[in-house]
Amino acid sequence: QVQLVESGGGLVQPGGSLRLSCAASGFTFSRYTMNWYRQTPGKDRGFVAGISPSGSTAYDGNSVQGRFTISRDNTKNTVYLQMNSLKPEDTATYYCNANAVYWGQGTQVTVSS
Question: What angle is formed at CA 8 by the lines to CA 6 and CA 12, rounded to 5 degrees?
């Protein structure tokens, strides 16, 4: 049974940092491209960052380039999203995704003073 379990969300002040984690099980993690998406109420889920099996990365350049870093640990079947210099517009539910097929349940990130 495939499972993606996100953690690390919460409330943070503008300019602060959070690290999201996504623990995967039920599939061969090292062979999958892993992605982070985010969604706010009334809007479509949007791509944030992705990392290939070889470690190549891609980001939504319009909004997170230079502030967010995606990484993976294949020994722990976990993908991370380090988020720095957070802005109120980063407030969203963040979802982990595997190869555009499997989804986690999401973790809420709220950036507010």
Answer: 140
**What is the mean pLDDT of the segment spanning 57-62?**
88
The CA distance from 102 to 57, in Å, is 19
Hunting for tokens 């976990």 — which residue is that?
A: 78
Distances (CA, A) of 110 to 10, 12, 38, 47: 6, 6, 12, 18
User: Distance (Å, rounded) from C-alpha 41 to C-alpha 32?
Assistant: 28
pLDDT at 87: 97
Answer whether residue 61 shows pLDDT above 90.
Answer: no
Q: How many residues would you count in the chain?
A: 113
Numbers of helices and strands, H then E, in the chain: 0, 11
Tens digits of residue pLDDT in 80-106? 999 999 999 999 999 999 998 999 999
Strands 10-12 and 107-111: parallel
